[in-house]
Each structure stands twice: as structure tokens, then as C-alpha cells.
Amino acid sequence: MSLSNQPLVLGGRTFASRLFVGTGKFSSPALMKETLAACRPALATVALKRADLSGAHDPFADILDFLEPDKYLVLPNTAGAMNADEAVRLARLGAAAGLPKWVKLEIHPDPNYLLPDPIETLRAAEILAREGFVVLPYINADPVLALRLQDVGCAAVMPLGAPIGSNRGLETRAQIAIIIEQARVPVVVDAGIGRPSHAAEAMEMGADAVLVNTAIAVSPDPVRAAKAFAFAVEASRAAYEIGLPNENNRASATSPLTAFLDT
Amino acid sequence: MAFSEILPTLPLNRWIERARGAREDEAMAVLKNGRARTMEDFAALLSPAAAPHLEELAAQSQKLTRHFFGNTIRLFAPLYLSNECVNVCKYCGFSRHNAIPRITLPAAKVEDETRLLAKQGFRSLLLVAGEHPKYVANGYVAECIRRCLPLTPQIALELGPLETADYAPLVAAGAEGLVVYQETYHVPTYHDLHTAGPKKHYGWRLDTAERGHAAGFRRLGIGALFGLHDWRLEAVSLAAHARHLLKHCWSSYLTVSLPRLRPAAGGFAVAPENVLEDRELVQLMSALRLLLPTAGIVLSTREPANLRDGLCTLGVTHMSAGSSTEPGGYSHFDESLWTPTRTQPGEQFHIADERPPQAVAAMLRQKGLDPVWKDHDRALSGTRQPPLFETITATSDESAAPSWIPQSR
Fold it and tell me: Contact B384/A82, CB-based, under 8 Å?
């Protein structure tokens, strides 16, 4: 039984979990599979560049064979693409290979910080949304870009908390707050989430989901780490739904001190 | 501004002095930070004073590497196209005057060799050739790329340097990476070792990576060949080059190699003062990781198995395995054992780690590292626009002299 009573609805599908997990950086595909099974994410993203898209089940590019689409949605991503054309081509190949017609759009021309290119991302999003893809773009936490992407038909926006793999948490918190306030599609905080408390912080702010990869994959115990993130996401989402108490600088007695005046 | 113009303006001597003579507390201060933020920091980590703290340095390198790259190592194979070469390089097996059997593989034969490598698992190749304007011509290399691409989606090139306009068709054919080692960054040594052929032009070679970037290669590989000159000078120069490329070619992925000279035809002997010892190699690789946490570090089969087994967990991101350095060499391998069935007289140098690819992959798994064979898709090849909207004009006049040839020629 889930603590949260509002399931995530995204791209016309309903998800029981609000945790998304990336599949890179694991020490083996078997461990990745076990981790995903243990934390039951809503979806798992997979880099199309690492997969065999020919349908030949290449034993040297068999990452797809370790994913379980009956347990979570497999979300192809365009990592490696440096411009819109490459991302569009990869997305189409993934769909042609029988993967869901969904795409996590990642375009990072800077291979060192892997920060997303806003111009190419908007261009590719427009093309892919028009072609009927459910498009989830990875973006810097830029509220206007988030709105522009919603205008061209993206099913969600995925602003980063901090650079990929940095584990630094919500460095872009103020901008994410604006994106959440203005959003008419789900907001998924992606990248930079290094601790369950970072995930909880995003969920308590009203993010609809979070995506975690590095902090799980390079953990000494990925299976338990993934579960820890799943619990944090569920607990903080429930708290958000219930309504978080206001913060108050002054003392507030649980029994009013001046009630005797009213009697 | 190109690196060949920048290099003479850098305080190299100051850095080298620090690499030789930093105090222990200076090295320790950098180590405590966990990162080398400046060239001064990097130089201090190379110093003899840092050597007693190698274990700590290696641990930090490992931590940064796992953090950015995860628990993975990318595998690739070199495929030698040709050993014909017009250059005279005193240390290289392919040097023009060495009496070795010379061959340029026909493109169909290159495809056969690629098929053999693909069966071993490789989805990433490095096509290597000597420098010969007649045999290793542009059309030939483009044809090889086109034939290999359906079998292995990721293809990098290690050829004699070309003009930007001549690289463009190779990018269009689907090549993804360009590798060129400066060999030695020490100018007098460079001129002493490269006595004839286009390679004798130091600056022309030094700016190759930048021309490759302008042509649209998405991955650039640089390196120095350790054993030709003092290793600390090479290390400092190589690091400065890497930092230059990270700024000026920001949209290319940078890899760095630290090859050590191996025995080869010609019998070049490494001077004792130029030897990079095993412990120093680890120190250098780790220091480089602290300076460049996101750069790829490539480790070839030049190094022996026991050393590779140790190095792969410390900072390395890319490894070759089961290599032949002779054009056509893989056709003389036993397919199931992946060992040569005859000597390889036309090889560039003799490799040290002779294990087959699957044995190397098994070793990586045993160390908790996932061997990644495919990390690139053909959909990403041959499509990239040259960066910065730079206009590349094709050389229409075949006889036009490249810019490095002195006017007085």
C-alpha cells in the first residue's frame, strides 16, 4: 500500500511510483536488473547508444535484455546526441526497434559537464512531439525554456538540480520552484540528486517525480541505496499531498496561552 | 589562437621546476583538496615529494573516475591499415628506412579484419596507418570507414595529420574520433627524432587536434610517447595541451594516452634518464585524473597484463585488448584462441598484454567493472556539423600546398 494517494499521470499513463532510475554506470547489467526489481521505479531510462537497435540481440550490446518492461516503463534516452538531428534520429531508431514511443531528450554538446543545449533541445522536442512521441526533455532549470517546451507539446519537463553525477542536490532550487509553479505538465527533477534527502527536498517542493542514477549505480550497495531513494520519494510525496506545516520563527504553544480571556 | 602559438608563451619551465622540486607540504596540500585546480597543483603532484603518498593519490584518482564514469570500462581495438610511411622517426617500427614487409590493406581486406574483430565483441575501432600521401590517401580511408561502419558503429582514426578540409570527408564518412600523439613535446628532441617527412614539422602536428575539431570530430585523443624525453616535461606539456583543448574545442570529448615506448624494429633504446617507471606512471595517471576529472584516459596493450589489471581500476576509462599492430595481423590469429599463428614481421611495436579480448573482459568483471563494447550508435556518425558555424572549403586544387610547408620549398 502506498503512502501517496495521488498516482503520477504522465503521457497518458498512470504510475504507482514517482522514482525514475537511470541504467548507466552499474558494475554489471545483472546488478542493474536486480536494483530495478528491488526499488520498483515508475520507469527506467536507457541510453540508445549502448543498445543494439537492429533486433539481432547483439550479445555485446545487450542492455535491453536486462530490462523488464512488464515491471516498469523502459524510457529510451538520447545520451550522446550533440544536436537536434542526432537526437531525433536516435529517437526514431528506438521507436523503430520496438521500444515505447517515448523519449527522454538529452542533448549535451559539452561532454565534460553534460549540460543540456537549450536551443537544440527545443528544436528536437518540437519535431518529436509533432511525430507523436511522448517527449521528456532534460533541461537546465530555466523557467522560460520549460514553458516553451510545454508549448511545443512536451509531456513533462526535467530540470536539473545540479550537473549529472555531481550529487550536489538542488543547486537550482529557486528556479525549479518557478518551473513547478508555472507547470501544466509533470516536473521531474533530474540530475544532481545524490542523497535521499535531496530527492525528498524536490518532492516536498512539489516536483512530480525525481530521476536518480549515479547515486544508486556507484553506491557500494545499489540495491539498498535504490530502496532508500524509493522510500524517501514516497514519504516526501505523501507529506506534500497532506500539506507541509508552515515554518514559523516564533514559538506556537499547542494549548493557547490566552484562552482564559475568552471564558 | 592555436596551441602551437600558445605553448611558447606558457611558464613551462616554472611548472617543470615545481614538478621536480615541490615540497612535500605543497604536494600534500593539493592532495588534501582532492583536485588539482591549476597547473601548479598538477606539477606538485608529479614531484618526487608526492611519490611517498602514491597510495592516497591513486585512491583519489579512483574515486573521481568511478564517480564520473561509473563502474565501466570502454573497450576498443586498433586496426592497422598500412605500415607504409614517408617519415623517418628514430623510434618507430614503421620508420621509412626500416626493412620490414610493407603493405597497405585493400579496403575489402580491412572489412574482413573488422569482421574478425566484431566477432570478438568490438564495436569500437581505431584505424591506424603510417603517413603516406600515395597509399594512405583520403579516398582510401573514407572507403575503409564506410566498409567498417556497418560492423562497428564507432570508428576513430590515427593517421598522418591532415588539413581541416581533408578531415571533413572522413567525418562525413562516419569517423567519430581523431587520435594524434605529439610523441615528444620537447622541441629539440622532436627535431632530433623526426628527421625527414612531413612529421618533422612540430607545430603542424601540434595543431592537428584543433583542425580535427574544426572538421567535426566528436572525440579527440592526444598523448606523448614516454621514453623519448624527460617524463615530467612531457607530462606538464601534455596537460597544458589538454587544458587548451578543453577550452577551445569544448564540444569534443577529450581522451589522453600515456603510452610508453616498446621494443620495435630499428632498435631504438630509451635513455635511462627518460624512463618512466611503473610507480611514476601511476603517479602521472592519478595526477592527470585530479587535474582532468572528466577526460578519458586510454590504456593500450603496450603495458603488460599484471600492470593493466592494476591500472584499470585507478583512472583508466578506455582499454584496447587482443591487439595486433601489423596491417593484416588479425587474419593470422587463431579465431578461437585469439593468438597469432605466425610472427608479425610488419608490426609497429610488439604488444605486452597478449590476452584475448574475452580474457580482458573477464578480468574487468572480476574487478567489478562492466566492460562496455558499444557506446556509440551509427545514427550519431557522419552527421555532426562543424562547430561554431565555421565554413570549411574543400580543397579544389589538389596541388595546393598545406599551410605547414614553408614557402621556400
Answer: yes
